[in-house]
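User: tokens in, sequence out, please.
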């Protein structure tokens, strides 16, 4: 398993460097090989973890606290599987989207380097190296937004300020941990941090920085313009994958490093922010004028469900992880469809979508299927994630979450149908489809079907999540 953990990071990193240095057909070949190799390495890692349990890898043979420790367990393997699945399909979509487009020259080095950064974040067992991965992810994500120019450049600069602020808050927490115990290894920190104010302040700083990066209400102001103005493949990556990275790290430190210091008051605060995010984000999506802005505000809302796991704990954690996977697939599909709409119709104005399903039938079908998972209808992955969250809320007799989850579900149905309803009207007036329509529609359809298929795959996911901490035993 050691080689798989190393190659999961190394392959996209090398491919990103080659995508920057090379030109022409050779560049395209190494991009394709990089995506395929990184996906294969991720699949191998998931198989190894599911079969053998959690394992550590000390890079260069140096053990903590001097060396860098990689750790592959069920939680990290779960998110690497999401990264590889969404990443491979979005890469295929991007190949067609950027064909002959100069913007694609900047996209591939940034995207592949971002891929490596996310995998590094999921595998690190070190708080400081998690910061390094966060910085790599933030800088490349900002580049993906700003590469589109115009309004996206302004949104990218705002995103840059936000991601740097979040990283600095996280780093301040890491500095406090190091000052307290003289180490930044996660396992050493979990064992060495005693019941002191330093630990609580460190957790508060790190949580604040990661919540800012995850665009949790009311710190979400940067996300809608960044996601809505970036190129469609970049938007799919940002919403489907990037915000999952900071959320993953928050879950990791909450359960592994600060489990003895995460008090109920902070947990309840995060749950309340989650409820506010569901209501506010859904309300903004309902009144949004553009498809991409609607999907972007929907991301703000869907992140709220993930935060409800913090006060609920127990079975809510697997439910939140499963919902995160379903959201990643569904939201990537929706942004890909939004990109296809803009390319095919020349706009993504919801008021002007009359009959558009005649032009992009598979695309709008994919949007509807992704909406099924986003709303949380059976038999989708989104349904199972919400069901586990609802069950945990019922076990705790927590009426706030028992009311918020169904309310968010109804509101999600409202904004999904805002796009589908006009697209299905007056189909005979639809313009003739372009010959490149299938290339633009196939990847989002695969993503949406995958989100639906998660509804039949809960047991293997729960088994994987149980391999090692924080949701299982040691092996």
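Assistant: Sequence out:
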């Amino acid at each position: 398993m050691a080689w798989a953990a190393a190659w999961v990071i190394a392959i996209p990193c090398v491919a990103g460097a080659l995508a920057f240095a090379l030109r022409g057909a050779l560049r395209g070949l190494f991009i394709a090989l990089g995506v395929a190799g990184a996906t294969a390495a991720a699949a191998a890692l998931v198989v190894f973890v599911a079969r053998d349990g959690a394992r550590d890898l000390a890079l260069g043979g140096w053990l903590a606290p001097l060396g860098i420790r990689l750790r592959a367990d069920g939680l990290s393997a779960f998110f690497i599987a999401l990264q590889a699945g969404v990443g491979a399909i979005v890469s295929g979509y991007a190949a067609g989207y950027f064909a002959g487009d100069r913007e694609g020259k900047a996209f591939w080095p940034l995207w592949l380097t971002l891929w490596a950064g996310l995998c590094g974040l999921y595998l690190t067992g070190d708080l400081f190296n998690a910061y390094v991965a966060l910085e790599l992810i933030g800088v490349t994500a900002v580049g993906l937004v700003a590469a589109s120019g115009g309004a996206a450049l302004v949104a990218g600069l705002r995103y840059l300020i936000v991601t740097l602020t979040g990283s600095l808050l996280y780093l301040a927490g890491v500095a406090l941990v190091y000052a307290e115990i003289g180490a930044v290894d996660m396992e050493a920190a979990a064992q060495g941090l005693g019941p002191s104010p330093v630990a609580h302040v460190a957790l508060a700083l790190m949580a604040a920085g990661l919540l800012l990066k995850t665009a949790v209400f009311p710190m979400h102001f940067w996300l809608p313009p960044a996601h809505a103005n970036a190129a469609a493949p970049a938007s799919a990556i940002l919403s489907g994958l990037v915000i999952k990275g900071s959320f993953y790290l928050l879950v990791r430190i909450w359960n592994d490093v600060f489990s003895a210091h995460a008090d109920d008051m902070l947990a309840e605060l995060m749950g309340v922010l989650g409820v506010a995010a569901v209501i506010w984000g859904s309300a903004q999506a309902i009144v949004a004028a553009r498809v991409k802005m609607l999907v972007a505000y929907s991301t703000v809302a869907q992140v709220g469900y993930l935060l409800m796991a913090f006060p609920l704990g127990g079975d809510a954690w697997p439910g939140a992880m499963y919902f995160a996977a379903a959201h990643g697939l569904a939201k990537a599909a929706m942004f890909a469809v939004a990109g296809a709409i803009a390319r095919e119709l020349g706009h993504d104005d919801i008021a002007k979508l009359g009959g558009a399903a005649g032009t992009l039938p598979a695309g709008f079908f994919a949007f509807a299927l992704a909406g099924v998972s986003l709303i949380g209808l059976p038999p989708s992955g989104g349904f199972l994630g919400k069901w586990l969250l609802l069950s945990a809320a019922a076990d705790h007799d927590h009426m706030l979450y028992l009311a918020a989850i169904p309310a968010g579900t109804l509101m999600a149905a409202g904004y999904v149908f805002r796009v589908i309803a006009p697209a299905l009207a007056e189909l005979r007036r639809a313009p003739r489809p372009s010959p490149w329509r299938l290339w633009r529609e196939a990847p989002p359809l695969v993503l949406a079907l995958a989100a639906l298929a998660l509804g039949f795959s809960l047991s293997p996911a729960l088994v994987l999540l149980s391999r090692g901490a924080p949701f299982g035993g040691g092996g």
